[in-house]
Design brief:
The complex is a heterodimer of chains A (333) and B (269). By secondary structure, chain A is mainly α. Chain A has helices at residues 3-36, 43-58, 65-72, 85-106, 116-138, 155-162, 178-200, 202-212, 214-219, 224-250, 259-270, 275-295, 308-319. The radius of gyration of chain A is 22 Å and the shape is globular. Chain B is globular and about 65 Å long. Chain B is built from 11 helices and 10 strands. Classes of the chains: A mainly alpha (333), B alpha/beta (269). Bound molecules: adenosine-5'-triphosphate and magnesium ion.
């Protein structure tokens, strides 16, 4: 095999890994949109909030310590423990479930039957609230997230592939980050288990029922409010997974919430209501932007990854507005 | 869990299972229902008829809790019902179908009907998520009930078909299946035969009568086809412009002058 081919292959693989992350965030959007027709602007902030909470809990940080110290003149900062990663993850999950409950109780419940744009505005408010609340709770400095996921080049893969190139060429093997490999495995496991859950359990069927028809769901005894709590909790769980992976890679900081913006073009490609669409859309954008940067980028000054996804989405909007998997939209007259 | 069986156990066939009393419902200026009262006896097929816009669907929506009337009471199984949400009413043993088919389009026939078992399944989300013992056993037991219904409605051939792809008549049948899966005490059918050909109507009539006879289910049926109504209903209530203009056996109603006028379009004074 020629080194060029192998480099391209490496780029594609790295693109797929990046795409997995986009897919995860887009998945959170799709879940909530399907069940309630709400475009949840706060999905990205939820990932940030989950990551911050995880770091805070793991390092035994006292929540609101700045506030407490300012008000009472104390000097508390930490409980002085470090929790094992899985305990911290479980506790974070509980926080996200509680969050889902509170969102339903204090926001959604009061906005039933409102226009989509109103619900959207409510989630913008929610996003800013959570961002500020997260800072207040855990502090706004950049945090290091370490849940023991291995990082750095996979030497095994590098050695394994080093011999693939033709004899005598300068090729030293493929570079793939272990973290990306783990993220991919976790994302696959997550999607598979969500799919199984929604196919073969009572609650899973209820989730799909609500996505299809609210009235009919009510008529068979399904409480929409309960389902909304469950959906937001699942979206919170997905956000947490995305937050952990992204946070481990580039630190827990505000920019993490911006990955949500990358999910937008994914949704345009995949369609707002299709779970397979979110996954495939994420992968296409991941691979597309890496390949584009690798092949065309150098000719036009690089940094194409900043805009490629959005332009691709624009192209899709013009030529295939229903997304990859959507039915063709035919105007009713 | 579904409390329908327990609630209705003290009521014998032929006794009142549900009654609406002096129901008035309006939407803004539109009076959909004005002072409507009638009863349903356990085990009967009770037709609700009337011209378009008479308030028939609104009546079913009041009974299953989609609409909350401004005035009037609903009595169910011997006591006055407090204001409940539709999903709570489903737990009391009331199931329904819709005038405009409301199936879960993305799901198969099997899953649609399985969703109808919702009120009979008690396992919680944690046990479902980890797919352990009780949740799995419950799933299997309910699946058997669903297979019985599929056999009863003769739709084995479309068990796994996504319902969105089925022809209209079969969709209506699946929707009946979903309602039957709840093993309802009271079954509300909003125009189950609309848009069907004669053969399909005959099948549907047969299923409705079989449900009544085999399970003793009380059925409230909205239907426009007078032939069908006269054939399968025990008693008929007639609405027109939100008012009740007739109530009795099919024969009584057929000979009622107000009913004849309403159907022939005699102008209102
Ligand atoms: N949700 C609603 N909002 C506003 N008006 C309504 C609503 N539901 C029913 N109505 C009005 O109430 C009246 C009765 O409607 P309803 O659907 O109960 O009639 P129907 O007897 O079922 O008629 P059809 O035979 O056409 O189905 C109509 O004037 C209708 O426009
Ligand atoms: Mg109607």
């Amino acid at each position: 095999m020629s080194p060029e081919f192998l480099y391209t292959l490496e780029v594609i693989l790295n693109g797929l890994m990046a795409g997995v992350m986009y897919s995860l965030v887009a998945l959170g959007f799709v879940l909530i949109f399907k069940a309630s027709g709400i475009f949840n602007y706060a999905q990205g902030v939820m990932a940030l909030f989950a990551a911050m909470t995880l770091v805070g809990i793991q390092n035994g940080q006292v929540p609101f310590s700045h506030l407490i110290n300012a008000v009472f003149g104390t000097h508390i900062h930490g409980f002085g423990w470090t929790l094992p990663a899985f305990v911290a993850i479980l506790l974070t999950l509980l926080v996200m479930i509680l969050f889902a409950y509170l969102v339903e109780r204090f926001v959604l419940k009061h906005l039933v039957n409102q226009d989509p744009i109103i619900l959207f505005m409510a989630t913008i408010g929610l996003a800013y609230f959570m961002e500020g609340f997260g800072d207040l709770m855990w502090g706004s400095e950049i945090k290091v997230l370490d849940v023991g996921v291995p990082q750095g080049a996979s030497f095994w893969l590098e050695d394994f592939t080093a011999g693939w190139a033709a004899e005598g060429s300068e090729y030293y093997g493929m570079y793939i980050d272990k973290l990306d490999l783990v993220a991919t495995v976790v994302a696959i496991a997550l999607v598979v288990s969500l799919t199984l859950f929604s196919q073969y359990t009572k609650t899973g069927r209820a989730l799909r029922a609500v996505a299809d028809d609210h009235q009919a769901a009510l008529s068979v005894g399904i409480s929409l409010r309960k389902i909304w709590v469950i959906v937001w909790a699942i979206a919170g769980f997905v956000a947490m997974v995305a937050g952990i992976m992204w946070g481990a890679k580039s630190g827990v900081q505000f920019s993490l919430s911006l990955i949500a913006l990358k999910a937008l073009p994914v949704l345009i490609l995949g369609g707002f209501t299709s779970i397979p669409g979110a996954i495939v859309g994420g992968l296409i954008i991941g691979v597309g932007e890496k390949l584009f940067e690798y092949s065309i980028g150098p000719m036009i000054g690089g940094a194409t990854e900043n805009w490629f996804a959005y332009v691709l989405a624009l192209v899709f909007l013009v030529f295939r507005p229903q997304g990859l998997f959507g039915e063709k939209i035919i105007e009713r007259v | 869990m579904n409390k329908g069986a327990a609630l209705s156990s003290g009521i014998d066939t032929g006794e009142e299972i549900l009654s609406v009393r002096n129901i008035s419902l309006s939407f803004g200026g539109v009076k959909a229902l004005t002072d409507i009262s009638f009863d349903l006896l356990k085990g009967e097929v009770r037709a609700i008829i009337g011209p378009n816009g008479a308030g028939k669907s609104s009546m079913l929506n009041v009974i299953n809790g989609f609409y909350h009337p401004q005035q009037g009471e609903v009595w169910y199984c011997g006591s006055k019902r407090k204001s409940l949400k539709p999903h709570q009413i489903a737990y009391q043993g009331i199931a329904r179908t819709f005038q405009n088919i409301a199936l879960f389009k993305g799901m198969s026939t099997l899953d649609n009907i399985m969703t109808g078992r919702f009120t009979h399944m008690r396992s919680n989300i944690v046990s479902q998520a980890f797919w352990r013992g009780p949740a799995e056993r419950e799933e299997i037991a309910n699946r058997e009930k669903v297979e019985d219904i599929i056999e009863f409605l003769e739709i084995q051939a479309i068990r796994k078909t996504p319902v969105g792809r089925l022809p209209y008549g079969l969709q209506k049948r699946v929707e009946l299946g979903r309602a039957l899966a709840a093993e309802p005490v009271l079954l509300l059918l909003d125009e189950p035969m609309a848009g069907m050909n004669i053969e399909e109507k005959e099948d549907m009539s047969r299923f409705i009568l079989d449900v009544q006879q085999e399970f003793g289910t009380t059925i409230a049926l909205i239907e426009h086809d007078m032939g069908v109504v006269m054939d399968i209903s025990d008693r008929v209530v007639v609405l027109d412009y939100g008012k009740k203009i007739g109530d009795g056996t099919p024969d009584e109603v057929r000979n009622n002058q107000a009913v004849i006028d309403a159907y022939l379009g005699v102008p209102h004074e």
